[in-house]
Amino acid sequence: MDGTAGGTFAVVVGAGSGTRFGGRPKQYRPLGGVPVFRRALMAFAGHPRIDGVLAVIGADAEAPFRQVAAGLDLLPPVIGGAERTASVQAALDALAPYRPAHVLIHDAARPLVPRAVIDRVLDGLTRFDAVIPALPVRDTLKRTVAGMVTGTVPRDGLAAVQTPQGFDYRLLRDAYAQAGGAAATDDATLVERLGLAVHVVEGDPLAMKITDPNDLDQAERLLGNPMGTRPLLPRVGTGFDVHRLGPGAGVVIGGLTIPCPLALIGHSDADVGLHALTDAILGTLGDGDIGTLFPPSDMQWQGADSAIFIQEACRRVRARGGVLHHLDLTILCERPKIGPHREAMRARIALICELEVAQVSVKATTTEKLGFTGRGEGIAAQAAATVLLPS
User: Nearest Cα to 207, choosing from 292, 119, 97, 279?
Assistant: First the structure.
């Protein structure tokens, strides 16, 4: 992002709490193995006509957002407010030093917005100061009260509005300033209140908004076979890794450091669990193994966090249009005891790989005092990964 004065910037608003989902906000839930928020950001971060992408996040979301945004070229995020209008206002203020000519405002809860919709909005901004995508309303609309129909609303001329909505930056800042904090469900409403015209371009059903779990299920179905593209078929890969034990201050397994007077010996952090999982994921792609991609002869990987390795394997799955569906890890050791750390390990692996915890299995067993693991000389791990890839 070069922050060129007069450029076009995209704001992706994801500060909501997602109360209809309960617990984890919807924008941080996985969709096809990738968080909803990340999919929305990717639509703009990779667009050649966008000069900068700014995310608006919740006050307590810095840590999960860092995971979501890893590897994307973004501006530093800003903290949003209790209402959407406050969140957009914070973003507009943060963009002021870049002196944008145009700004696009997009909902993080619309993760599948096609590039064609973004392009139509951008094209519209070459002629108009305010442009929104919309779809004609085709269903009959009824007004209801307490579960009873009270009237029929004529659908002629009605449209369902989507995002991104595009504006002349100074116009939108002025609209927000004059609104004085008044609530609005979309940004175009504030421009309309100034008596100014808003141009409409064609939207797309894929730009649907995820509001409740049913919407997420629908988006999963759309993503599984979007617009008649090739179906996703399952592949299974396996991985195995061993590291010897030596004196130390803790064993790193599954992304966690387990306190004990031992350490695993290796070129990186020697995380035997993440190494096995990395090889399992790479196996689904036929992309070699961890030693091929991150050779121990390369000093840049000395002492490296093994999360780097498995995240690269996950990135390769996404680059192939695939979805990481499930991970299964078995740890073989006499010590340390894995059981007390199993759930934390599942949660850590899920976070690293952008999965739900339910998609990660961690098990542990001993070898009944047999072999090098039984003698406490080392720890082994075997893993399986299930990936869905285009046929």
Answer: 119
